[in-house]
Amino acid sequence: AIPPMFHDGIRNATASKAKWFLCFADTRNQDGWVDLNNLPSDVLPLRSALLTPEGAVTFNRPRPDSSGNPFCLSCHTDDGSGHRPASLLVDALIPSSLLMQDDPRRQPIQPPAKVYGNLPAGTWGTYPLVDMHTGPGGHPIDEFIAPPSP
Questions:
Q1: pLDDT at 28 exceeding the cut of 60
Q2: Is there a contact between 33 and 27 (Cβ–Cβ < 8 Å)?
C-alpha cells in the first residue's frame, strides 16, 4: 500500500539491496505487533542508518555533528524569517564540548533527561543492574539508554 517512490528513497539513502521496506512499531508484545528486540534473523533494521547516520548519541561523549543530517534538517533551518526558536536553528545541531549527559539539548527521539520512581533491574536491557529508587530528584536516564560504546 506504500508507493514505490518511498521504497526507492530508502533504498537510495541506505545503499540497501532490499526490494521492500517495512515500518515496524514496537509495542512491547501487544497482539499483532512486532517486538523490535526479537526480529527474525533476515530482517535488517535501518532506523539508525536513516535517523543518525553520523553516529549514535553516546553517554560520556559529546553529541555527534548532526548539522548535515537530512532528517534533522527537515525541522532545523536557518530560514532568516526570525520565526524559528533558537532550538530549531541549524546551530543547535553543531556539537559542543559538553558530554551528552551534561548537554541540555534533547533530540526528539530521546526521552526526558531524568526518570523518576522505582526502576526494576533490567528495565532497559541490563540497566539498571539492580533495583533502584530514584528519590524526588530523579535519576539521569542517559546512562541507561545510551551506554558508552566499547
A1: no
A2: yes
Q: How far apart are the first and last CA of the chain?
A: 41
At 26 the pLDDT is 54
SS3 state at 109: coil
Supply 144's cell numbers: 541507561
55 vs 147: CA distance, rounded Å:
14
φ, ψ for residue 140 (rounded to 5)?
Answer: -60, 130
Q: Secondary structure of the chain: what % helix, strand, coil (to 5)?
A: 25, 10, 70
Pairing of strands 118-119, 139-140: unpaired
Residue 8 contacts by C-beta under 8 Å, 6 or more apart in sequence?
none
Note the pLDDT of residue 27.
53
Cell of 50: 536513516
Closest listed residue to residue 49, CA positions, set 70, 22, 73: 70
What type of residue sits at position 40?
A: P
Nearest to 140 by CA among 101, 95, 108: 101
